[in-house]
User: Fold this.
Amino acid sequence: MNGRKRVGDDKLLNLILLCIPLSLVSFGGGQTIVASLQHQTVDILHLLSGPQFTDLYAISRAAPGPGTLIVALIGWEVSGLWGAVLATLAIFIPSSILLCILGSYWQRHRHSAWAIAAEKGLAPVAVGLIFTGVFAVGQSARFTPLELATSLGAIAVLLTTKTGPYPLLGVVGVSYFLLSLAGMA
Assistant:
């Protein structure tokens, strides 16, 4: 080539072009786009490895803020501070503009039959997209048998007891630390 960059070679531009349409279809919040974000950034654009995506996802869920925080972390990983800023703008600005344009119309007609039907129809779509995101992150994590057993055990404890997540995290963290000292994890 003659020294010119092709658009397909620019990882940051590809990330921005990915975030804009995802912004417009994120019904139900940032969790609903996780599966698409994982598929595109790991499998299609090769911006991240599966474990990198899983790590960024875990950080984004542990930190306070919106579910779309993962986009800023991916942007940071791809292109530093500018990547974080531009990816964040690309995920928030399109949906914000759409919301401003359609928001007043929706408010005027929110009790109409079509608006009620749309809300009822979009709720299960959002739930399905969230579960798809959980599945995608699980696949990217490439769990070992010990990690899978720990996750399933934690789910069982949380669903069947009144134990909160923080004591459970402490117990699991100490257990993994002790296993690592013994050379078993």
User: Anything to note?
Assistant: Residues 49 and 62 are 20 Å apart (CA to CA). The longest helix spans residues 69-108.
